[in-house]
Amino acid sequence: MTARIPGGDIRWKFDLAGGSAMDMTYALSFTRFALHAQTPKQITSCTIRPLKSDPRVDEAMYAHLIFEGPKTRAPNQEKPTQSQVNSRIYTDMARKAVFGGLIPRFWELPSIEVETEKAIIYYFNAMMPHVYHYISITDKTTGQTRYVKQYSGGPFWGNRNTSVGRKGGCKGWSTYRWQLEAFVDAVKGETPAYWVSGEDSIWQMESLDSMYHAAGLPVRVGTEVKKG
Predict the structure, then answer these.
(1) CA–CA separation, 17 and 139 (whole Å)
(2) Domains in the chain, ordered, with CATH?
(3) pTM of the full structure
């Protein structure tokens, strides 16, 4: 996942939790969502390209994580074996445009690739799918690839009434709009179509802290909440 963030932007401020892995947290959350995972079992490597004006802030981060996968059992095995899933995450907030800075790297929009035993699944532009996206599924046996796009509806929202009175929502809604729809349902006391729990948010931040520790950087400063 790459971008070109101008100097002076708050995303570069350490005291405001700046850094590429923090701001581009989606790269990690994509992986955790795909695996239904909490935190990585191990971080085998984590390297950064530091910001020149503040080496505590990462311009870019390359991380190799290992998550626990599903338990598998071969026909001749008595007990199942705990599988492992390798995940490589790349974030860069200072990626230079090409051709003299004239053309942004549209092909590096936030994406995730998942390889299973039978298929390779690639989701292009998972963060801003309302602009354009596709999901390619390549069968590893036949080599055939099919493409899927989903701008509204789907397994979570297909039969849900939304705030506009239309089931499945509308094409062109950004991910923020879908979040708002879920939030409104929660406020009304209804069960949202999808919800990120407080626990899941904590696991996400614990994972990010672990990555910064592995890279030899200080973790981002938390905010103290005073009650009363």
Answers:
(1) 41
(2) 1-69+83-106 (3.30.360.10)
(3) 0.85
